[in-house]
Amino acid sequence: MNKQVDIEKYLEEFRSEISRQHDTIKDLTDDVARLNRRVESQNVEIKSLKSENKDLRDRLSKYEEPQPPKNSDNSSVPPSKERMGDEIKRRTSSLREKSGKNPGGQPGHEGNTRMMSAQPDETEDIQPNYCRECGRELSDIEGVEEYREECVGVRIIPVVKRLRFLNKTCTCGCCNRVEYTKRKNPVYLSSEIRALVVYLNIVMCMPYNRIKSFLHEVMHIDISEGSIRNFIEDAGDKADKICDRIASELVKSPVAGADESGFYVNGKLNWAWILQNPKLTLTWIAKGRGAKEMDDRFGRNALENTVLTTDRHSAYFSMNVKGHQICIAHLLRNLNYLNDLDKNQNWSSRLQELLRKAVHWRNTNPEAIADTSTWTESLDKLLNENLDKFKKPFRQIRNSLRKLKDHVFHFLKDPRVPSHNNASEGGIRILKVKQKRSGGFRSQTGAEDFMAIHSVADTAKKNDFSRWDAVLALV
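Now predict its structure.
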């Protein structure tokens, strides 16, 4: 006999079970949400830890040195920023290959020595005063010259010259006076002292306080730093006019070199530019390092008839010029880094050998015009080699040279074009010397005056004139 089923009882149990399942699902949902939040938090923490780990690895790599450090011998890093160990090593190494000759003048070299003066400023007789045998006093006996020598010295003393403005009355009764303007202070420093101040600051890169100390301690002349600044500003105003003439001549040059370097003026980044040839130097300040800065200084298309020797900075290759020559010396330094980076490969050394052979050919054939097709073919073979197994810097240089391969051997086609840009780098290096000794510039006008006066002084040096005479002409 079938039992009577209690439907209500089963429904109640079913409802209870559903309620329990609902509570369980709710608890599980809360757990999942909580776990998701924890996972999200852990993902953020993992990302942060990965970033921190990368930063620590980069910092640690300096000490482990899995890659050689960059310095002025294997990159464009200036000597002022390299490590002390690299600086010491640089002083004992060179890009030049050893010639096997002893240092100094070679056999047959015509030496230079100081000659005796025809009329010395002073003569001092060094003679015995007493006889070493009998002790007699010898002052009444005239000596006979046995040997002579000369000592070249200098007197560092101020020379005070008083200028008196006189009037003269003629017999006709007319009183004649010379023209003069009364100064606020009738005691002033001569043009030589003003030129010395400018020379020490611009050419020798001495800061104001050291110039002040030098004049006080050595020459016994007291001068304020404000006066030093005024002397340099006056010289800079005159130099600006000469720089305009230098600029007008540079744009006519068939070959020129250019470079740029960053420096700070009162804590703000500026860029120093240089355009030069064997006879002229012009340096100036710009806000950036783009091609626009050259157009702003010389005018658009001003260098369209000029072959420009530069490094591989992209801005130069967007300028409207007749042609380009990339700096081989700069490239050889970069290849030195690849030699240090992977000592088991010879790709970089073979490329160096090709470039050195080209430079040697030019040095031994200074006036010849070469057919560069053979040189270019050899370069193409090297650039087409598979460098996938090498580190990234290899491919970076390879890709850069592929874009600029037409500008590698321009110096072989035109004897006027140098194979390097050392003159530009040397002309602008004084800025780094100034920055290292003085800490930079405190005003824009001070930096502009420095660039203008340096341009005049360096131009004078290139034309076999003394930089001192050039500065003296500006004061």
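Residues 7-64 form the longest helix (58 residues).
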